[in-house]
Every structure is written in structure tokens, then in C-alpha cells.
Amino acid sequence: MHFQKITQYERKLYNKGIKYIAGIDEVGRGPLAGPFVVSAVVLDLDKIFSEELESLINNENIGKNTLDVLLYTKINDSKLVSPKNREILSEFIKKEAISYSIELFPPEKIDELGISQVTQLSFYNAVKSLKTKPQIVLTDTFEVKKLVKNCQINISGGDTKSISIAAASIVAKVYRDNIMVEMHRKYPLYGFDRHKGYGTKAHIEALLKHGPCEIHRKSFNPLKEMLSSK
Known about the structure:
Elements: H1 2-6, H2 8-15, E1 21-27, E2 36-42, H3 45-48, H4 51-57, H5 83-96, E3 99-105, H6 107-113, H7 115-128, E4 136-140, E5 152-155, H8 163-186, H9 192-195, H10 201-210, H11 223-228
Parallel strand pairs: 1-4, 4-5
Antiparallel strand pairs: 1-2, 2-3
């Protein structure tokens, strides 16, 4: 049932002869620290809707050589997938995808341009960076203003309804999480490996005690208020 639900948009488009569909998703819009990351993924729909995969899904006698293909059925909104499985799926998606791209904006650019403009630029750049030009772009609610309206579908709750968006959410999440683990090694006082830069109680307490570091977004509250009060 999950696989039927999360491939519903791709299946309808595929049946109309549309094979190159890019799913786009972001991670890191709300944190107080770290980069904003967007991924775009064009999955191999011929493989996803092949008779082979359909028969495997319905077959209880799965051999070891088929488990890799069945990873398609495990793709879901990154928030609903365990960290270990996200890592496995991210590598699988990048290996199997027809094309994928990752766009990153560092904290200083977010402070300079504002998160709304950064989001628009990141989504647009992610599409343009794909080696295979998509016929349709699917996003989770978000409208990319620089893309033609009738070439994009903005789906409410898209990361649970589109396998392409879900795949992009996993690639983006794993990429950013790994960056934040690296940042923890450089700035161990803040616990970036645990909260990934989001405004948790522990993160706020560390900010109040130590002040911001280089990767904090100075335009975001409570940092903005903290800095203006000095």
C-alpha cells in the first residue's frame, strides 16, 4: 500500500508518457546554524514500474539478489526513515538515479539574502544542475517562481506522496546531517552532531553560554536579538 501511495503522481505521469520527473526537497530551512541544502532527483521510472519490481513486491520468496531493487519500496519522507536506513537509501538513490543534484547555501549567504530568496535560488539551481532535463518537477508544496508553472506540480505533503520528492528529501537530509557532524568536530561546544543546528533547549543554552560561532545564522532569532543587545 505504501509503494502504491508514494508512486501515485509518478505513475499517472508515466502512463502519459512522461519519464523524466524531478523531485525536489530541502532540509535546513529553520535551524539556527549550518547550511541550507536542496536536492533534486530524477529516478529511473522504467525500473520502478517494471514488471520485475511489481512481481517482487508481491512475491514472498525474495532472494538476496533482489533485495537491492526492493530498496525502492523503502523510500519515504526522510523524517520517517531511521538514520541508518537513510544512509543506505541515500547511496542507493544516488547510484540508481538517472540524475541528481545537491545545492548548498552557507549561513553567511542566508544572512545576506534571506531564507526566502535562498530557497528560491536553491530549488531553481538544483533543477538546472541536473544532467538530464526533467519534463516535470514535483515539489513539496513549494512553488519555484523561475520555473514555468505548468511544468511543476506543488504537492501538499509531497514527501509522503511522491517517491521522487521523498528520494530528494533523503539525499538532502543525509548530506546536511553529515556536514553538521563534521561541524561538531570543529565546534564541539554546541552539540551539532545531536541537534544538527536546530533550536533545541541544549543548543540555546550553549548559545547563551558561549555565544555564536562562525556557522550560526546571525539574522535568525534568538541570535539576532542576542547580538543586537550587546
